[in-house]
């Protein structure tokens, strides 16, 4: 345990010493593991893991080979003696990846069809914390809704849909009765602030009003009167901030019909135990019950800061559901920051694959976004990429970096 405490002092993480134990255990059980797989297993973002792994490589506890990260011989002996690790893990379902929904081969034609549609999505707007879910995730969400009886005869709202889950829902009939086109929910309404996404959803859906509706709405503004307490189900993938979570839950409750048993499907980043506890307190204060929680459910394209993976909550309203304890009501405008860039200005470090030089991207430097970098090209060699994300630096991580440098020099 002393070693874990030393690691926590050197590179503080919110998960504490048990977070480090998880990292070291997963490397031990895997034999060798990629940084991305380690992120999946430990639920820690890649930039944080990268700093930890690099530090342990400097200390000759870990090594890096083409196959991935692994222990050095001395590192293995030290870890086994210090942490008493034993064995080599257990087998899990390779086909379903231990998720509640398995995409059997019967869904392959729909996956292929969705791939073509999803490829036409506009460029992500990072200022809105957009990160597109992959095709399989959107279809698995649609099938999860179907499995739970959350579609048939129901009115469902998609509170933001940059993942095009509504399109996957609209194609479900093809997996059941392809010759009998039917939108399974009674009504689907897609709300989004980004009109580019709404246009793409309309153009790729065969369903028309009043069954399938797209509405431009910035949910920082009050719930539209026409849709107040209108829906049976709300699906939302909000900005991964606590203020953003408070806001979307307020809006979701305002959209749902009153009474017990209405559902919210909430995708949210994996958090430390203390932050999870804070979230659970919020759910309880709103009178929402957690009836299902699926870790590692959502996969995203290029969201390295999140480890590319988030969890799915299924929340259900009760007779005690109310927004009275929230700082904003259904009829009020929200004026606090909710997006990551507003709450935590930071610098992201990219490197150019052409010239191998580093480039800083952020609100406080010349290049503000990755989209701007791709458009203007590398400032060193003018290449248009690809650009690989190395990590995200905040004030705390910068301090840690200096401490590691001093440690190595000493």
What's the gist of this structure?
With 410 residues, the protein is of the alpha/beta class. It is 37% helix and 18% strand.
Topology:
Elements: H1 2-10, H2 16-30, H3 35-42, H4 46-58, E1 62-65, E2 68-71, H5 73-83, H6 108-118, H7 135-147, E3 155-159, H8 165-170, H9 173-176, E4 187-192, H10 195-203, E5 212-216, E6 233-236, H11 242-255, E7 263-268, H12 273-285, E8 288-299, E9 309-317, H13 340-343, E10 347-352, E11 358-362, H14 370-376, E12 387-393, H15 395-409
Parallel strand pairs: 3-4, 3-6, 4-5, 6-7
Antiparallel strand pairs: 1-2, 7-9, 8-9, 10-11, 10-12
Description:
Helix content is 37%, strand content 18%. It folds into three domains: 2-83, Winged helix-like DNA-binding domain superfamily/Winged helix DNA-binding domain (Arc Repressor Mutant, subunit A), CATH 1.10.10; 105-317, Rossmann fold, CATH 3.40.50; 345-393, no CATH class. It contains 15 helices and twelve strands. Mean pLDDT is 85; it is low at 303-307 and 393-405. The protein is of the alpha/beta class and 410 residues long. The relative contact order is 0.11. Helix 11 (242-255) links the parallel strand 6 and strand 7 (263-268).
Report the total helices: 15
Query: How many extended strands?
Result: 12
Low-confidence stretches: 303-307, 393-405
* Integer average pLDDT: 85
The major β-sheet equals: 7 strands, mixed
Order of helices and strands: HHHHEEHHHEHHEHEEHEHEEHEEHEH
Number of domains: 3
Give the DSSP E fraction (strand runs of 2 or more residues). 15-25%
Structural class assignment: alpha/beta
| Straight-line N-to-C gap | 24 Å
Name the CATH superfamily assignment of the largest domain. Answer: Vaccinia Virus protein VP39
Helix content: 25-40%
* Rg from alpha-carbon coordinates: 23 Å
CATH topology of the largest domain: Rossmann fold
Shape: globular
Instruction: Please give the order of strands in the largest beta sheet.
Output: 5-4-3-6-7-9-8
CATH class bucket of the largest domain = Alpha Beta
Give the name of the CATH architecture of the largest domain: 3-Layer(aba) Sandwich
């Amino acid at each position: 345990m002393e070693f874990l405490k030393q690691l926590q002092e050197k590179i503080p993480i919110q998960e504490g010493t048990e977070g480090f134990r998880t990292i070291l255990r997963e490397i031990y059980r895997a034999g060798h593991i990629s940084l991305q797989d380690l992120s999946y297993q430990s639920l820690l973002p890649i930039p944080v893991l990268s700093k930890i792994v690099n530090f342990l490589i400097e200390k000759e506890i870990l090594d890096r080979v083409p196959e991935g990260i692994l222990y050095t011989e001395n590192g293995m002996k030290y870890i086994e003696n210090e942490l008493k690790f034993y064995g080599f893990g257990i087998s899990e379902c390779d086909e379903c990846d231990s998720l509640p929904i398995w995409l059997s081969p019967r869904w392959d034609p729909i996956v292929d069809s969705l791939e073509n549609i999803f490829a036409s999505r506009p460029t992500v707007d990072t200022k809105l914390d957009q990160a597109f879910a992959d095709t399989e995730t959107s279809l698995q969400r649609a099938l999860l809704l179907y499995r739970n009886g959350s579609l048939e005869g129901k009115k469902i709202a998609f509170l933001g849909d940059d993942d095009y889950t509504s399109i996957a829902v609209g194609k479900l009939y093809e997996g059941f009765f392809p010759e009998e086109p039917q939108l399974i929910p009674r009504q689907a309404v897609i709300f989004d602030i980004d009109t580019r996404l709404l246009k793409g959803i309309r153009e790729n859906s065969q369903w028309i009003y009043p069954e399938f509706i797209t509405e431009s709405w910035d949910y920082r503004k009050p719930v539209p009167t026409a849709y107040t307490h209108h829906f049976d189900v709300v699906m939302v993938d909000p900005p991964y901030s606590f203020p953003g979570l408070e806001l979307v839950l307020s809006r979701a409750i305002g959209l749902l019909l009153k009474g017990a048993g209405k559902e919210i499907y909430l995708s949210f980043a994996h958090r430390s135990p203390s932050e999870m506890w804070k979230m659970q307190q919020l759910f309880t204060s709103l009178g929402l019950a957690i009836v299902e929680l699926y870790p590692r459910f959502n996969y995203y394209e290029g969201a390295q800061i999140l480890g590319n993976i988030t969890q799915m909550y299924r929340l259900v309203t009760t007779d005690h559901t109310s927004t009275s304890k929230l700082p904003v009501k259904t009829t009020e405008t929200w004026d606090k920051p909710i997006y990551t860039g507003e709450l935590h200005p930071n610098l992201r470090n990219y490197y150019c694959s052409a010239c191998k030089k580093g480039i800083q991207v952020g609100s406080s430097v010349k290049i503000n976004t990755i989209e701007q970098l791709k458009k203007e090209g590398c400032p060193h060699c003018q290449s248009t990429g690809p650009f690989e994300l190395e990590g995200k630096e905040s004030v705390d991580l910068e301090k840690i970096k200096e401490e590691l440098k001093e440690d190595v020099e000493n």
